[in-house]
Amino acid sequence: MAAAGPSVFLLMVNGQVESAQFPEYDDLYCKYCFVYGQDWAPTAGLEEGISQITSKSQDVRRALVWNFPIDVTFKSTNPYGWPQIVLSVYGPDVFGNDVVRGYGAVHLPFSPGRHKRTIPMFVPESTSKLQKFTSWFMGRRPEYTDPKVVAQGEGREVTRVRSQGFVTLLFNVVTKDMRKLGYDTGPSDTQGISGPSPPQGLPR
Q: Phi and psi at residue 128, in whole multiples of 5°?
């Protein structure tokens, strides 16, 4: 009797939240979490994490380097709802309060291999100058109660935001049994590093 074929495929990802560019800010830390469809389930690793606080490097790049590790494995029966990683960057304001300095999201790479992604970050804006002054004075800047909304489309069109900074991530991706289930992820490219994502944060 022939053995039954696989019913799920695996997506294994490790890497790191490498660095960030926020010219106006220093002493920042980063949080990450994953958003994925209902057919997906994590089987190993961490679904969320929070980095150390880092200061700008002393070289000309003035980069904020975290090198914060990512390691997670998902299983699924179909690619719909492919996982996205959501990043939130925080740092102190002039009064010492922790305030959000940027949100961003990107899909995990589809193809096996080593990938590099640079994510443009943004922050929500107050709708009026009075609200902007009040939030600055009170140390309560506009922010999302749940950062996962960054990876979803509902309600985003009514949110006023401002672009602010970039975060660079490195991914090492391995898939298992996708071809057996009829999905072609393309040839593996373990030598090169792919370029940054398009501005909208969608995978190429």
A: -145, 160
Report d(CA 172, CA 108) in Å as an integer: 10
pLDDT in tens, 9-35: 999 999 999 999 999 899 999 999 999
Closest CA to 122 of 107, 135, 103: 103
Q: Which residue has the tokens 């997670």?
A: 72
Burial track 23-34 (b if 16+ CB lie within 10 A, e otherwise):
eebeebbbbbbb
Q: Taking the model in full, what pTM does it have?
A: 0.81
Phi, psi of 151 (to 5 degrees): -90, 5
Q: Are 101 and 25 in contact (CB under 8 A)?
A: yes
Say if residue 200's pLDDT is above 60: no
Instruction: Select from 172, 120, 152, 114 the least CA-distant residue to 34.
Output: 152
Query: Among residues 67, 110, 106, which one has the least CA distance to residue 86?
Result: 106
Give the model confidence (pLDDT) of 90-145 as tens digits.
998 887 888 899 999 999 999 999 999 999 999 987 666 655 556 555 556 667 77
